[in-house]
Backbone:
């Protein structure tokens, strides 16, 4: 009899184990996760709320009871039976709560969770009716702002430019009623055709095109010519040099400046952005250097400089002004250098060329869309075997033509 009683106890215990395990889950459940997605399969968007809670062990199904807060209190609006630890509902805006009834292996009610509250916010469908301007010219405009008009724009609406996978966010968005003012950073603007895109809280969105970011001209060509006198700064070519033996080596040219000089610049600018333009500049100057030394002789040469530089250019005030900066390298040549003594006997002419580097700044004023005047200054350092190496500056004043 004792053995039969023990066997009966084991059978009852085994049958009750699923219920015991299910009961243990009652204290382990954590607050649920609530999210949503938009179903557009039937044309009109339909919001689907997904309720997710912690799964229990040895549970055959769950029954979800959803109640909505009305004037007279909470009223049951949905009752859904599911076999997994989540369910999907389509609820209207309002304040809700729900509980989960957990059924064990025998489909008996094991326990009921506490109520969990959640809010379904009303989502509004935005619309864009118009915007202006419809184009940014990166090489001309200086204000990067767009005014947008539409419907159902809220303070929480997100608005930006979109092109396939590219997105340009504004620096600031000011939404007032059904209009929005967008301000962009010029550094973020990339040429292309975009849509104005708006998305409201809840995920409903709208877009309208086409907004264009481009250049009035894809490439620029500039040519200028003018006067560019030479002002010596340092080095043995322009200043007397004390040799190691104490002897003073007189410099061929030690004047304060040499005015007989002409310079020309030609630039090609293929890369243009709102922050400025990059291109290549070819420059050259032709100068006459002549120096009388101690009434005994004069030194004479044609001083030629030819350089290729990287050019940065930035326009202002709708292309009325431009700032230019360049840095580059090239050749400095003394051509037909000779001494001429006061008795009228010149020495044999000689030529010498040296590698040199340059950098400069200039400013241009456009008289018309094509004609400009410009002024600036370039610095040159000549690389020579002898020390100290010479350097000079070349102020520039001229006029040019823009293509």
Residues:
């Amino acid at each position: 009899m004792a053995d039969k009683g023990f066997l009966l106890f084991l059978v009852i215990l085994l049958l009750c184990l699923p219920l015991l395990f299910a009961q243990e889950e009652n204290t382990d459940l954590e607050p649920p996760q609530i999210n949503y997605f938009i179903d557009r399969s039937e044309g009109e968007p339909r919001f689907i709320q997904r309720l997710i809670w912690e799964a229990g062990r040895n549970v055959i199904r769950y029954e979800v009871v959803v109640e909505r807060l009305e004037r007279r209190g909470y009223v049951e609006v949905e009752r859904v039976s599911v076999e997994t630890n989540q369910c999907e509902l389509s609820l209207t805006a309002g304040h809700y709560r729900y509980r989960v009834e957990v059924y064990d292996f025998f489909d008996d009610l094991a326990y009921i969770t506490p109520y969990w509250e959640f809010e379904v916010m009303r989502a509004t469908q935005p619309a864009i009716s118009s915007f202006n301007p419809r184009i940014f010219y990166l090489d001309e405009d200086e204000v990067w702002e767009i005014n947008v008009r539409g419907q159902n724009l809220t303070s929480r609406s997100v608005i930006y430019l979109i092109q396939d996978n590219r997105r340009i966010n504004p620096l600031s968005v000011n939404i007032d009623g059904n209009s929005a003012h967008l301000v962009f950073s010029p550094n973020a603007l990339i040429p292309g055709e975009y849509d104005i895109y708006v998305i409201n809280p809840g995920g409903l969105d709208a877009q309208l095109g086409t907004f264009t970011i481009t250049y009035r001209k894809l490439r620029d060509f500039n040519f200028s010519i003018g006067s560019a006198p030479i002002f010596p700064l340092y080095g043995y070519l322009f200043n007397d040099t004390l040799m190691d033996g104490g002897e003073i080596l007189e410099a061929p040219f030690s004047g304060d400046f040499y005015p007989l000089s002409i310079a020309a610049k030609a630039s090609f600018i293929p890369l243009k952005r709102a922050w400025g333009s990059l291109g290549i500049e070819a420059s050259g100057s032709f100068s006459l250097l002549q120096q009388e030394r101690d009434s005994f002789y004069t030194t004479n040469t044609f001083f030629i400089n030819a350089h290729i530089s990287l050019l940065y250019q930035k326009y202002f005030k709708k292309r009325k002004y431009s700032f230019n900066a360049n840095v580059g390298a090239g050749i400095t040549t003394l051509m037909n250098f000779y001494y001429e003594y006061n008795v009228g006997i010149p020495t044999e002419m000689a030529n010498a060329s040296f590698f040199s580097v340059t950098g400069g700044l200039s400013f241009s004023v456009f008289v018309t869309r094509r004609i400009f005047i410009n002024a600036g200054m370039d610095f040159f350092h000549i690389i020579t075997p002898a020390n100290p190496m010479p350097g000079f500056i070349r102020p520039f004043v001229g006029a040019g033509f823009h293509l």
